[in-house]
């Protein structure tokens, strides 16, 4: 009896250890897959023997994601469909199939599959997020219009601030044109010299990968009493992870008598679900005049409550010329974006800027329409 009991215990230990080793192998395969070592991951997955604690379905789902990241979409679709024949309501397999269609640029089937996920689990945030993105992707054009009111020590004024039109021909590219006359509203000193100082510009944004994007833009500011300015903007952004985004921005303004270079860097981090914080640093320097620059440190917070987006920020400014140096709390701004009807959204913006001997408060209203 003792021998029989000992044998049974020994058998259970062996089985338990085998299962533990198999689970470790699965985790190792997933780790290789996430690092882009897809072939090595597939070899590991195929070597794993299923058991009561590690069912074949778990192994197959890992293989499906591996093939999908490997861009072997047909293999991934075949594996996920096999899993769903056995377990039609398996959330991981349904999501895996939906993402495979999405990464294959088969938006119609991706949309259908994400809807199926919601029919099984109606509060699934991943499916909701991707369906919203797919819904907006089908809208090729995006139009913004802003009208502003400025209150300053010199004089109050109002006028058109900005018009934007964006067009997305495909998933990786975005084209845009804009008209921007905000400088007159922002700068009451300039408005006494120039009645308008609009910029007309255009540019393109390209996604090099899921993590890296670049924007290149060019424009011209039309001035009536001095030389026109030409502007070149370059921006690069990189998603280190779904939670962390880094951006680097440069702008070069030039005309006959002076040149201005602006360099900026941003870190955008998801603090908790639906709440992000952004830290930014700007350095603008007049290359024509020695020791003439201004710098700004910005701290912003962004959140979304239902369909309402909230953004708030404060900033600290540093000004320097050969004769003057000033450091101060510069001000802050708030932006609310809210739904109006269907694809029309409204925007409300308030900004208070102490500036450099040029204190202004700006209130702007805007609309955004996708079509």
What is the average per-residue confidence, as pLDDT, rounded to a whole number?
83
Shape: elongated
Major sheet = 14 strands, antiparallel, barrel
**Major sheet strand order:** 1-2-3-4-5-6-7-8-9-10-11-12-13-14
Explain the overall architecture.
α1 packs parallel to α3, α3 runs antiparallel to α4 and α4 runs antiparallel to α5. The protein is elongated and about 80 Å long. A hairpin with a 4-residue loop joins β7 and β8. A 14-stranded antiparallel beta barrel has the order 1-2-3-4-5-6-7-8-9-10-11-12-13-14. Helices cover 33% and strands 45% of the residues. The N and C termini lie far apart (79 Å). By secondary structure, it is α+β, with helices and mostly antiparallel strands.
Quick recap:
The protein is α+β, with helices and mostly antiparallel strands and 371 residues long. The protein is built from nine helices and 14 strands.
Task: Indicate the topology.
Blueprint: H1 2-34, H2 38-47, H3 56-69, H4 73-86, H5 91-103, H6 107-120, H7 125-137, E1 141-152, E2 157-170, E3 173-180, H8 182-186, H9 188-193, E4 199-207, E5 212-221, E6 229-241, E7 244-254, E8 259-272, E9 275-286, E10 293-305, E11 308-320, E12 325-341, E13 344-353, E14 360-370
Antiparallel strand pairs: 1-2, 1-14, 2-3, 3-4, 4-5, 5-6, 6-7, 7-8, 8-9, 9-10, 10-11, 11-12, 12-13, 13-14
Helix pairs in contact: 1-2, 1-3, 2-3, 3-4, 3-5, 4-5, 5-6, 6-7
């Amino acid at each position: 009896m003792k021998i029989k009991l000992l044998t049974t215990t020994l058998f259970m230990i062996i089985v338990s250890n085998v299962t533990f080793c198999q689970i470790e192998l699965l985790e190792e395969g997933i780790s290789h897959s996430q690092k882009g070592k897809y072939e090595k991951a597939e070899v590991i997955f195929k070597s794993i023997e299923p058991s009561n604690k590690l069912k074949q379905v778990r192994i197959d789902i890992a293989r499906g994601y591996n093939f999908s990241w490997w861009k072997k979409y047909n293999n991934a679709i075949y594996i996920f469909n096999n899993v769903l024949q056995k377990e039609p309501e398996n959330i991981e397999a349904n999501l895996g199939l939906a993402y495979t269609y999405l990464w294959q640029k088969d938006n119609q089937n991706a949309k259908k599959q994400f809807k199926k996920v919601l029919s099984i689990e109606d509060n699934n945030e991943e499916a909701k997020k991707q369906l919203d993105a797919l819904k907006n992707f089908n809208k090729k054009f995006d139009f913004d219009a802003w009208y502003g009111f400025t209150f300053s020590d010199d004089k109050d004024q109002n006028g058109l601030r900005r018009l934007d039109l964006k067009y997305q021909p495909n998933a990786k590219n975005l084209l845009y044109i804009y008209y921007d006359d905000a400088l007159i509203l922002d700068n009451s000193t300039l408005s006494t010299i120039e009645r308008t100082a609009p910029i007309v510009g255009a540019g393109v944004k390209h996604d090099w990968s899921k993590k890296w994007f670049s924007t290149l833009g060019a424009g011209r500011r039309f001035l009536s009493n001095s030389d026109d300015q030409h502007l070149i903007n370059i921006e690069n952004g990189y998603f280190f992870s779904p939670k962390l985004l880094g951006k680097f921005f440069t702008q070069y303004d030039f005309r006959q008598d002076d040149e201005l270079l602006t360099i900026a860097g941003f870190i955008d981090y998801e603090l908790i679900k639906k709440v992000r914080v952004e830290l930014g640093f700007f350095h603008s320097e007049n290359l024509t005049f020695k020791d003439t620059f201004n710098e700004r440190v910005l701290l912003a917070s962004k959140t979304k409550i239902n369909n309402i987006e909230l953004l708030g920020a404060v900033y600290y400014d540093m000004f320097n010329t050969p004769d003057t140096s000033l450091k101060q709390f510069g001000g802050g701004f708030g932006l609310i974006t809210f739904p109006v009807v269907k694809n029309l959204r409204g925007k409300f913006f308030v900004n208070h800027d102490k500036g450099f001997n040029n204190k202004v408060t700006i209130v702007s209203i805007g609309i955004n329409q996708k079509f």
